[in-house]
Amino acid sequence: MHQCMSPEEEKLWIREAHAQVKDLFGHRAGLYWSDLLITALIAWVATVVYFTAGLGSGVQWVAMAVAAVAFYRGGTFMHEIIHMPRAELRGFKWMWNALFGVPLLLPWIMYRNHIEHHSRAHFGTPRDGEYYPLAAAPLYETGIYLIKLPFLSLLALARFGFLAPLSYLYRPLRDWVLSHASAYASNPYYVKRFPDKELPTLSRVEWVCFGWVLVWVLATIFGPVTLLHWGMAWALHTLTLTLNWIRNLAAHSYSNRGQTMSHLAQLEDSVNLVGQTWLTVWLFPVGLRYHALHHLFPGLPYHNLGQAHRRLMAHFGEPSPYALANHHNFFRVVGDLLKSAKQTPAEHSAIPTWRAEHLK
To answer: pTM to 2 decimals?
Structure first.
């Protein structure tokens, strides 16, 4: 639909859409805090049950599942934090790091690169850390994407438990860490120096995360923690990250081959999952199922996305540029990606474009 619009027509359409939701950009602090604290309580209580229940018991398996879903849900608030103004809800940001960021070795400051994902100059290109053209690459690339899952937790442990402290002793290693290991990216060829202005914040949280790892090490040497507990922590952490990794497959079409895209093209490449199913609620918490709407207006808080979606649908109806982003089934979205990948021969893969950017 957007191909029929001139740049000026696109701007007018976006202004019209914004007029429908302009009163929905305020963050409800009380809701953020209550949601965060309740989610954290569920996550940590379930974790205690997971570590203390009989090994292999049904109670332990249920507790593991509940803890992983709760940690995943709580972790997605990182996305909200990145889009908040710097001075807004500072205490909330600190508390999120205390309850989720540091224990999971996923401090929110390393997600600063996400803002580039909304930039017209970066979205859908090799310079976008969160866009990898799986639908425009052979199917084995999706397999490689999934094979990484068991190693993500180990990489986080290595990043904060070993590389961070050692990098302060060896400057070339520090430069490498800041360029290659200080951003959350699904694009394996994404390399960009961490911004200097944010280095004090990163440095502080690195040492706190290192301290958390050190507590586990000392508790293993002198206390009750065993190698079994390390294995259980890895399993829970991996399951938590897997939920997000799988969810991410239905965030975009991943079919762009590296060209820059207009605002409406980004909207149509993104996915709103509007089907009211248990899977949508479970796998797309904190507004993630309105991902296309989020790309249209990144500043909308998660608690207003549903209302904004209904307003836009009522105003524009179907067909419209907005409605084109709506999908009813997670499996169909992922199925379309896999079908496209299956039909893409190696010689037509978009991956070399991403690889070439990395080699520059």
So the answer is: 0.95
